[in-house]
Amino acid sequence: MRKVLLFLLVSFCLQSNAQNVSEYRGEKDKVHNLVHTKLKVDFNFDKQTMNGEAWITAKPHFYATDRIVLDAKAMKIHKVEMDGKALNYNYNDFEITINLPKSYERDEQFTLYIKYTAQPENVKQKGSKAITSAKGLYFINPKGIDNTKPTQIWTQGETEASSCWFPTIDSPNQKTSQEIYITVPKKYVTLSNGKLENQKNNPDGTRTDYWNFTQKHAPYLFFMGIGEYEIVKDSYKNIPVDYYVEKKYAPYAKEIFGGTPEMLEFFSKITGVEYPWNKYAQIVGRDYVSGAMENTTAVIHGEQAYQTPGELIDGNSHENTIAHEAFHHWFGDLVTTESWSNLALNESFANYSEYLWQEYKYGKDYADAHMFKDVEAYKNGQNFDKHLVRFYYDDKEDMFDAVSYNKGGAILHMLRSYLGDKAFYEGLNKYLTDYKYKAAEVHQLRLVFEEITGKDLNWFFNQWFFGNGHPTLEISYDYNELRKTVTVNVFQTQTQQFQFPLTIDVFEGSKATRHKVFVNRKEASFTLPYTRQPDFVQINADGVLLCNVNENKVLSDYIFQLGNAKSYMHKREALLEVAKKQDDNKAFRAMSNALNDSFYLIRKLALENINLINKNSKRQVIEKIKVMANNDPKTLVQAAAVETLGKLTEPELKPIFEKSLESKSYAVIGKALVALYYVDKALAVQKSKALPDEVKKIIATPLTRIYLEENDEEELTFIAGNVISGMYLSQDKNTQRLYKKAYDKITKGNNSEAIQNLVNDIVIKGKQYKQYGFNNVGIELMRQMVKTQKSANKANETKNIAIIQDAMSRLLK
């Protein structure tokens, strides 16, 4: 599962992250083991229900038993039989307890037949921040009323929602083979796990597709996807790799997903375990409840995967998610966490695969920048007190957070660094080989690495997997010029004591000597030699250790660090500090030099922070930025350069902005329109209105800025559809302020169409993020809109209030 991180404002009334420690949550007891699951299903689109028949083959795990309990949520149960004979059962809307005809011994198999109706709209279990709903089976536009989206059906099983559409033992420590007969109208294609064995046309205009999956996997990985898709075919070796996309995006499917075969090859190579399944398909689902899901051989992605060439030229924003789900086919699908408490065995590895892929495909700078972003997201959340492996939590959904994902990936990076690549990858191979088609816990991972390396790793796993937090280091230095040594003093300020390897670079000029030390006390000192007085000492020089570092640095230190540090993290830190002191000539020169950095994100960051106010004395730098605006190899850097030049509001720069409007990059076009607006308003407005609607949607924020400044009433209807996302889902405070201004303008105005678009979006977001309390926020927003309309308007007041009140009624349903 690749979560979607939502950066919501405090007014969202988010659920508390506090842990309820009243109940221990370990592995679910295995009373029975699933053996095989056979399903036959068809759908009532109008009622949003599914007619199902299930044949569940199981056996007692150890103890003899004469009853079985299956998870089955919000279903109508019509029949429960064995060998054609009815069985007695009790059903409480969550579990069905079936009395077997006799007591079955260990490993004695039996097959149950259950006829049922799945009613996903009646499911009562809640979702999480990562998976926003948990009803298992989803009908998208089932009656075809909404002409903005297709009719689709898809499923989402994680964590325990597969039991919303078929009876099963819904636990990650179960493994079963499966076969599914899916009957749908002929116009739809279907996707499920395993191989499409055959298709049969029926006299009533439907078709039945038979999907067969002969290997074993957990019930939460079962999948069905149904809709009008084009199937774009690809392959890895002799394994089909297919992309199920809406017709509109078929021309771009290989640009979006085409790296998949190389990912499968790369992950097979580093694990030493060949891709273990018979196909790899990916489908895009509308209104999907998360980022993506690793259903075995049948991955589903949210519609954010869809991108056009104008976006893809800036970089495939979904590529890390594609890698994440691919690696899950080893870590999660082949070997599965035995319990949600051990979720790190799934998600930490999938998270780290994003780093591994970036490092392999694009280089260490790209990977380090990605890791930095992940670590910052972990640090900036309410995560310090959470263990990676947690046996006490309020709800299983709470496990899907920045600890299980981001921190877990960083911990694996530290483990790889400590053990070395050879031992790390041999350990992965042994773990995957020993536990394939089984469930595992973190202790088993530790024992594998100990067997491979001969090292005791209890200390590492106890503090990182079974502990919480990370070290905060206070650093000081003592120089001895007679002995030519520098003593680095490390003091841990957090409550608990960590032990860890630490890299220290001692710079003599631009030459760095790297020292590797091991910190095993709260206070530790390391004396390091030098030839001449060091210019700089870099702590955590390789950026591997998950920690905070506090030390007293002056401007000259940061200038040196910016020019000489080896890792992205340290360059970024230095650049942001140097940017604060650009009145100093050396600082400004360092910022200017950063524009030449080999890594594009440093160039982009320098452009975003360089100060050109005294432009007459900085003409040489401006000339450099003008070249970058049209010629930097990275379009995102070009966009940043255009934006920086735009702040100068100089008419002589108009040709650069006009040329940028010819770019294939939507990011460049958006920045160029705003820059052009401040030197030629009429031309910028003319160019913006000539854009295709799809491009306008993608660059909505810069266009909103222009249209608001123009006081363009005609474009308020366009702006209105983006207001809620801009106010509540954006990380950028300037964007939030921009859309708040747009919200105020629309709510005070007479534009009924804009008000209609705004409240429609509030209703959609209110329902989509109901578990965050945004339905209540939406109601309050609309109440305020009614008050504003009553106080601010005469024309259209009655009509506008009726529109708002109708939307409130829809959201309250």
From TrEMBL:
Every Aminopeptidase N-like N-terminal domain range: 36-221
SUPFAM superfamilies per UniProt: ARM repeat (SSF48371), Leukotriene A4 hydrolase N-terminal domain (SSF63737), Metalloproteases ('zincins'), catalytic domain (SSF55486)
GO MF annotations, alphabetized: alanyl aminopeptidase activity
Keyword Metal-binding: yes
Gene3D superfamilies associated with the record: Leucine-rich Repeat Variant, Neutral Protease Domain 2, tricorn interacting facor f3 domain
Family under the similarity heading: Belongs to the peptidase M1 family.
Protein name: Aminopeptidase N
Source species: Tenacibaculum platacis
